[in-house]
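EI: anyone free to look at a 121-residue chain?
SC: sure, send it
EI:
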Amino acid sequence: MYPDTYKYTNDHEWIEIATGRMGITDYAQKQLGDIVFLELPEIGRAVKKGEQIGSVESVKAVSEVFAPMSGTIVEVNAGLAEKPEVINQDAHGSWMAVIKPADPAEAQQLLGAAQYSELTK
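SC: here you go
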């Protein structure tokens, strides 16, 4: 259910280490319900692991999005911001931003797919 090539946070974000793409997990989108708005970070912004970098708004609630790793935002998915409901159809294929990691070793502090699956049982 959760891609093995991704790493996960306890706050329900995923990051693909190879590309730096990150988004929210399928578990998170199910908890939120119908997503209607995204706030994405600014390109060029330096972020620290765990820092709020955006938000996801659904018909039920607004949820903060946190940086899964420290680094610099090098790209955002503007197309996703225009059609945020796509996250409800494919959360793990709907990346929000690309982070160029400052310290690749931080990835070892994140959860693997099996660990994240256990967390969300």
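EI: The chain has a mean pLDDT of 97.
SC: 👍
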